[in-house]
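When time allows, look over one protein, given below as sequence and tokens. The question is which stretches look regular and which look disordered:
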Amino acid sequence: MDEPGVEEVDTALAMLIANTRPIRRPHSLSKVAHWLAVARKGLGSLSTVAERVGLSEQMLRDLAAADRLSSPRAKKLCRETRNR
């Protein structure tokens, strides 16, 4: 992944904020994990991302876990699952 620009980091932060309310998550966990990776790369650390979006580092680590699942079935669920 190339170094994200300011606009891409801002988009990533907005996606994280919009998708951290589990009752109204418009995107899949896989997409949230992707945007978290973009924000982390652009801002340099998970703690900086956590500070910018007002969430704990632990919550962000939990969201990032969707990309590290080993079971194909679990990965599929994370790609498809979202709350409406």
